[in-house]
Each structure stands twice: as C-alpha cells, then as structure tokens.
Amino acid sequence: MSKVKVAVFASGSGSNFQAMMEHGNLACEIVLLVCDQPHASVIDKAAAFGVPTFVFETDHFSTRAEYEQEITKQLKDAQAEWVFLAGYMRIIGSTLLQAFPAKIINIHPSLLPAFPGMDAIGQAFRAKVSTTGVTVHYIDEGIDTGPIIAQEEVDIQAHDTQDSLQRRIQKTEHRLYPQIMNQVIREQATSNESS
Ligand code: GRF
Questions:
Q1: pLDDT one-digit tens code per residue, 156-174
Q2: Mind listing the pLDDT tens digit for each residue in 6-52?
Q3: In the predicted model, is pLDDT for residue 122 greater than 80?
Q4: Cα(1) to centroid of ligand 1, in Å?
C-alpha cells in the first residue's frame, strides 16, 4: 500500500526536514517542500533527497490569500494530505487553514503556551527558567496557539549557553517530530478503517 503523502514547509536551514528524511521509518512520504526563501539551505537539502520543491516569494503576490491559493494548488497537485511546518516563518492564513482543516501541524521550540512567537529559545534563556522544551501542535488562526499534540521538556543547565541549549532542543525536535508525524498518520489510518 502506498504511504500517505505529506508536505513540509520551511524557511531556513531545514534540520528538521533532514531528520524526517533520515528517519528511516516514516509512515508518510514527503512529496513536496514549500519554501518562501529562495536562498534557504533547506532547498539544497530537498534537492539532495530528490524531494520536489515549490519556492515562492511573497513580493510576487499582492496578498497572503493569493500566495496561499497557489500553495494550495501545488499541494493538491502533489496529492499532499497533511502539512508539517518545520521552521516556516510565516503565519498560516485562512486559505490554507480551510483547504487543510486540522491537517496542519507545527513544531515550536518551547513548552507552549510559554514563549510563543519568534526566538523562543532566546526568550526562555533570558527568562532564566529551569525548564523549557518542545511542543508539537495543530495550527489555528493564532500564533502558536493551536491544540497541543505532544510536548517534551528540556532542562536548562547552569553551564548552558544559548547555543548549547539550542543544540539540545534541536536534538529533541529531530527525535520528536518524526515520531509525532507517524503517530498522527497512524491514528488517522485507524480512524479511517473504523468509519
Ligand atoms: C525549529 O527550532 C522549529 O522548532 C522552529 O524553527 C526551527 C527550524 O529549524 N519552528 P530547522 O530549519 O528545522 O533547522
């Protein structure tokens, strides 16, 4: 049986994308990388793994709805059923939310609802909390507010710098995200079988 097809959205280095591709036992097939930054290194990673990319620049569109319509078309053409955001630095608007209801998932480097938005690792480090972590959650209209699927704690140690903390958080992300992808895909397959 063929695997469920999914897309990954990213804007930057793509270490989470790489961890998904190197997982070895992913329950889904990544059929498309969507990227809004033409020079992002995630594009080279996708090329190395032979994953097709849709790269766009928001400047070429007049509204978010317009570029999200084009993304939706690309996702439908690729037969992607789920979207996994991995460092995609844009807000998801109503066009995509309506096209993929409860099918867009994000990973965020803090224990939401603590430290939402940009630079979550720096926010936690500067706040001198003893524990931060990683959250995988559904996307809704807000910023990092959707229903939480999974969280994992990462302790901040006395000798940590922001860089060392970031490395441990990323390590956690690279293990947790593929695991949760498999979980949601398998849960959907089970609920499809019983309906
Ligand atoms: C990750 O820390 C993720 O939690 C956040 O953006 C970062 C992306 O990193 N949303 P990478 O591009 O996967 O290396």
A1: 999 999 999 999 999 999 9
A2: 999 999 999 999 999 999 999 999 999 999 999 999 999 999 999 99
A3: yes
A4: 31
Report which ligand 1 atom has the smallest distance to the Cα of 15: 14
**Known catalytic residue: 23?**
no
Written in H, E and C, the secondary structure of the chain is: CCCEEEEEEECCCCHHHHHHHCCCCCCEEEEEEEECCCCCHHHHHHHHHCCCEEECCHHHCCCHHHHHHHHHHHHHHCCCCEEEECCCCCCCCHHHHHHCCCCEEEEECCCCCCCCCCCHHHHHHHHCCCEEEEEEEECCCCCCCCCEEEEEEEECCCCCCHHHHHHHHHHHHHHHHHHHHHHHHHHHHHHHHHC
User: To test ligand 1's pocket by mutation, which of 8, 13, 15, 16 has the most ligand atoms within 8 angstroms of CB?
Assistant: 16
Q: How far is the CA of 194 from the centre of ligand 1 (A)?
A: 35
